[in-house]
Structures are given as structure tokens and as C-alpha cells.
Amino acid sequence: MISNSQLKDQMIVRELQRDSRQSNVALAAKLGLSEGAVRRRIEKLVTDGHLRFMAIAEPAYMGRALHVMIRIQTEPDMTDQVIDDLVAMRELSYVYNCTGQFNIATVGYFRSTEDLRQFTTAKLGKLAGVVELRTVMILRVAKRSQEWDFDPDELELDSGDD
After folding, report:
1. Quick one: DSSP state of residue 25?
2. Contacts of 152 (CB under 8 A, 6+ apart)
3. Which pLDDT band holds residue 22 (cuts at 50, 70, 90)?
4. For labelling alongside 3, which of 20, 48, 65, 128 has CA 20 to 30 A away?
5. How far is residue 84's CA from residue 80's CA, in Å, rounded to a whole number?
6. What is the pLDDT of residues 35-55, one digit of tens each?
7. pLDDT, tens digit (0-9, with 9 covering 90-100), for 102-125
8. Quick check: 13 and 44 in contact, CB under 8 A?
9. Residues 114/106, Cβ–Cβ less than 8 Å
10. Do residues 110 and 68 lie in contact, with contact meaning Cβ atoms separated by under 8 Å?
């Protein structure tokens, strides 16, 4: 069950996903809230870690055109340590702990195949606990989205909240 307050917050987030540069006044008008309420809700969402603002550049524009997924199998008792090591590597943008044959999946961006080779052999291949790794070069990104739509009609609202 979702509260009316949380629904309002999610509606604000959804509008910001569509256009993060719109003003609080514009958001308030779209959502039927006051500008102050929108501002306070956004501040709370940021403070609570539910929302963050950042500029996202295309990796190729920043000189990193080679987009790679790397799947890693670790010794079971070393997974957390390997994840900590991977998180510290600037070459990787995403590090996931997952199920399946490979218990870690990562995404990285590299300048060239030689940079990727150096990274996988000199860094990843020497990490304690790594049993196997496989790379997958991404040829084309067909969709990249941070928008998660929801249908307000499907939500069961808690009528006791604001």
C-alpha cells in the first residue's frame, strides 16, 4: 500500500525524470501543489537519498567509446571483497552482485580495446578471489532510461495520509 504522500513524491520524481531542469513553480502547477511544498519534498527526497541530481555525459564524448559488460565469477567467500575492490576502480561505472554462473556483473567504458585488455589482465585478472571473467562489448545501446513509469490507477492508496 502506498501513501498519498509517497504518491506525490513519486509524481514529482517522474516529472523531474522527464525534465530535471524545470522550475519548482512549473512542477507545482503541473501537480497541483504549492511551490513551497514541491521545494520541501524535493529537499527531503535528496536528503533521504531517494533522489539525486547529476549531469550525465555520453561516454564517447568523454573519450570512452568502448562500452563493455564484464561478468565475473568469484570464490564464494571472496565475493564481497572483490565487489569492494571493483567499486574502487574508476574504469567501472556499475558493479552488481547477481545470481547465476557469474555472481558479479560490471559495466565499464574504455578508450580502446588495448585499454580493456590491460584492465582485464593487469587489474581484474590479478584480483584475489576472481575465478573467471568474461567480457561483452556493447555494439549499440538501443535503450538507456532512468524513467520508471507507474499507473496511479493501479496503486492502492492509504486514505489516512495527506
Report:
1. H
2. 7, 11
3. very high
4. 20
5. 6
6. 999 999 999 999 999 999 988
7. 999 999 999 999 999 999 999 999
8. no
9. no
10. yes
Where residue 161 falls among pLDDT bands split at 50, 70, 90? very low
Q: Which residues contact 28 (CB under 8 A, 6 or more apart)?
A: 34, 35, 37, 38
Distance in angstroms (rounded) separating the CA atoms of residues 130 and 126: 8
pTM (predicted TM-score): 0.76
Cell numbers standing for residue 97:
552482485
CA distance 69 to 160: 46
Segment 122-138 shows an average pLDDT of 96
In this structure, which amino acid lies at residue 154?
A: E
Task: Copy the grid coordinates of residue 113.
Answer: 580495446
